[in-house]
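Field: COMPLEX_INPUT
Field: COMPONENT_COUNT = four
Field: RESIDUE_TOTAL = 1148
Field: MODE = joint
Values follow.
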Amino acid sequence: MSGETLFGLCGAALVGVGLFGVICQPGALRKLIAFNLLGSGVFLLFGVIAKRGGGALAAAGQGADGDPVPQALVITGLVVAFAATAIAIALLRRLAGLNDQGRSEGEPPPASRSRSDGGP
Amino acid sequence: MEASAIPTAWLAGLSAPGGVLLVVPLILPVVGLLLGLLLGGRRLGPFVFVLLSAGLAAAVVVAAAVVTGGEPMLYQLGGWSPPLGVALKADGLSVVLLLTSAVVTLGVAVYAQRDFRPPGARETRGSLAFWMLLLGVWAGLNTVALGQDLFTLFVALELLTFSAVPLVSLDGRAETLAAALRYLLFALLGSVLYLLGAVLLYGAYGTLDIGLLAVQIAAAHALPPSVLAAAALMTVGLMAKTALVPLHLWLPPAHAGAPPAASAILSALVVKGSFFLLLRIWFDLIPGLLDLPAAQALGVLGAAAILLGNLMALQQARLKLLVAYSTVAQIGYLFLIFPLAGTTSGPTWALSAGTLQVVSHALAKGSLFLAAGLIAKALGHDRIRDLAGVGRVLPITLLASGVAGLSLVGIQPSGGYLVKAALQGAAEAGGTWWWGLVLDAGGLLTAAYLLWFIGHALSGHGPHPATAKAPGRAQELVALALALGSLLLGLLPAQVFELISVGRVPPPEPIATAWAGAFHWGSLAAGLLPLLVVAVLVLAFGPWGGRRRPGPLGWPAVGAAGLGSAVGWLDARLRCWPVAGFSLLALVLTLGVGFAFGARACVT
Amino acid sequence: MTSALAVDAVLALLIFGLALWINAARTAYGAALGFMAYGLLLALVWVRLAAVDVALTEVALGAGLTGFLLLGAAARLAPDASFDAVGVSGKGSRFLIALLCAVVAVGLAAVVLVLPDPAPTLAPLVHANLARTGVGNPVTGVLMAHRAVDTLLETLVLIPALIGIWSLSSDPDWGGRPGSLPDLSSNGPLTLLAQVLPPFGILVAIHLVWVGAEDPGGKFQGAAVLAAMWVLVLVAGLGRAPRVTSQASRLLLVLGPLVFVGIGIAGVWLAGAFLAYPEEWAKPLILAIEAALTLSVALVLGLLLAGPPVADGGGVEPRP
Amino acid sequence: MNEFLLAAAGFVLVTVALGLIRILRGPGDADRILAAQLLGTGGVAAMLLLGVATGLPGVTDLALLLALLAAFAAVAFVAGSGRGAAGGATPGVAEGGTGGEEPE
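Field: COMPLEX_OUTPUT
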């Protein structure tokens, strides 16, 4: 068993853990963290594929340690994932702010809020 | 395994010098997004309008070039050929999406000039956000239409999602924020699954270019596990983004809560972006999937969507929710083409029907959401039971709704009719008559809820017209124009329909001859007859009676009410997050295992 | 080789265990903390996978900025600010879902294990064509030349994302300054840190962008460092984020992508294709685009962290 | 030589893992912040060892970046536990840090 295989298995496991979290976590923030785990699992698999591709070359003495194409794509993917996280957090904070406002003004809480009271 | 040798030569032969034309639809929205941010304020709306007009012109030119050339146009960005570089490709399918998105976006842009113009000289939140996000959606769609690289398409999908989600919550109410958050999280889940599929394909073949991948996959003796797993993951991920039942949890609140112009774009175009990628995967990337029994599963889900969406639409008390659930149902029609593609008529025929449904629904649903917005604005609410009097205040709007409805129901000569005729024909040819049954039931249910709404709007007892606010005439005319476009699709010259088969194996029976003479007075009458029956039924249940009745259709039967509440319960269950998540996982596994067994059966 | 494998095994186990812990954490705050540590470990894995460029991005964006966002949100959100508790799954259904997830993960692992060997790869093709791009770092070559359109679209994606966040303000607040960052201006040590650290940060950022042409590094990593330093200054109250209507900040926002598109369009005439560079000019042009993009991306990332505008524009979150 | 460096990296990693427990379990915010700093330092050390062992270019830059961002992470902790303008190094801070807790 090589290091790449090990990390490949790890990536697959992270996908599983992330999927479970996105589906089963009670709050949106926890879902979002789990989504980031899921994404990192996918990126890790891509990194393993890059290493496998480059590893063969390095063994042949061509000096490439990894396939640069997946690596470049993972960098792009990380930036996109960050933007997604930022939007989700902004939405979440705005929603929480509105709910707080509604509570302090003595209004009945909006629908989305009353549903959330049954938390774990 | 030298990945570069075969494909480069193959592609070089296809790339035409005029291909730089393809860059224009890509650059226009990009430049628009950048300059629009600098422009801001009052000038942004007119600027977007001018840009979209130019975009429509560019799309028309590309379409003309593809049609006259008779083969797909290819362009290699940066002069690098795939697999190293990224290619753009315009075949008939891309051209149709380019044109549809340009037309609908332009219509919405005309409509929105009034709603999203800052009142004073200062820029407002809504105006900047709406116009910029509209450009973002357009940029995403154009890239989806032309992209030929799975990762570029991923970025385009995210561009689409990031632009669409804030459109949902533009009015800032807590419900719409919650809907937007739910939409975002589920859409992100969908994109990750799609990306995972792309990663596996890269691991198997060392390229992400659809053309190169298709060549190598087709050359394989049997579909390897990585391709099957990638197909399952990408299909389910894109289904989640397209909101196919049972993954539709986010759609009704998101589409019903957005401002009307945004709803029109979301329902008409955004869900089509991810569906379009599904078409690319199933028809271009791995056409072998269509022969597997698992393709039936997509059709079954489509049928479920038609029934569930229509039954739910029938029960809605609010017009915008009714229209949103109608979208859930209409998405179902899109997925009926997958089981029918393997029949004798061939995949190109099914693909044509699907593409036509994309166009027809985009126009009709865009119109219907715009009309619903005008009604809600005039009355200050959109409760269907209190719509009385709208017919007198907004005759053009109501006419637009009616015309759009004809297309959704599938009456001659609308695009919806052609879609249903094509699907019926394919179903009969393949001996699978039950798909036809679903189509008929769907049409009747659609007719029922649209008549229910129009009947209420036409009834006379209501607020005096003078109390309602008058809408902009241009806004009403846009809604009508889109609806008429959808209705008159069936009267287009036959050659237009051949556009879709550019770059594909032509079907045994040319599309043009089948659809050229589609319009008959006889079949119009045959289509209208059941409609009349439904009308009488709706009439009997009484929007004109003025009495409030408990059930959606009034008194009729405890049975109907029971069915209604059962469907409502089912829908509410399915739209719970854990249940939808469970469905998603179950679908991934079912499709994956189904593909694997099907592929093995094919080989042996 | 055995100790290498042992290190890899320790890393893989640590990461998997930490992911499990993050999912099981009692509080969102704890989970966010765990996620920051997770990013650090992941960076180590990227080094083991010979992807230093990715490791840099992971440290700067994945662990640094994302962690900052998550921690801030976890600390500020009311404990029950979950939108979706409806239908929270019971024990039985959680078990069922966990089972399905495990099956998906095992299936995925099986698929990864049977991927073809030797692995198909574009590495030789990239290396053969690297000279034509003028840069020595293959990852930068891929990002800026071979797949320039992805990079262009990606920087573009950040703009609707930012507009989306800005759109989450209320109408009267439009024209204000971003207000989601915490205000720690009364914290003495932090003020000192915010005065001392940014100069170093700026140097590191410039270094990363500059060496990115030949060695691991590049605009995204540099921009993330710049954004982190800027946020530090904002949090310490030593500076204020620009108003959302500020024309200067908008100009800076679109500068990088505009330069990119402009050079790309010029490529149609000068090099025969959109997003192509004339061969002898490739390196200076790529460096120019990288420099402009660094500034724009840094500003976008910082503004994404700073959140929607609030009316008084003090950079202080309105107290509930 | 490489074997030795890798073994050392492994040892540092195990140390880091022990520190991790402190971050995750707390109990106080101060414990967490200090443990996180330890994690940062350990990470830098492990990174350098791994980098030298595998002979990759750019790993020193990575360690530099990590050291820089460890300071930023500390700010994130403080900001996270500070609860807005009312923050500051007061005993109330620790209480605020548990503000993210979900109801049991």
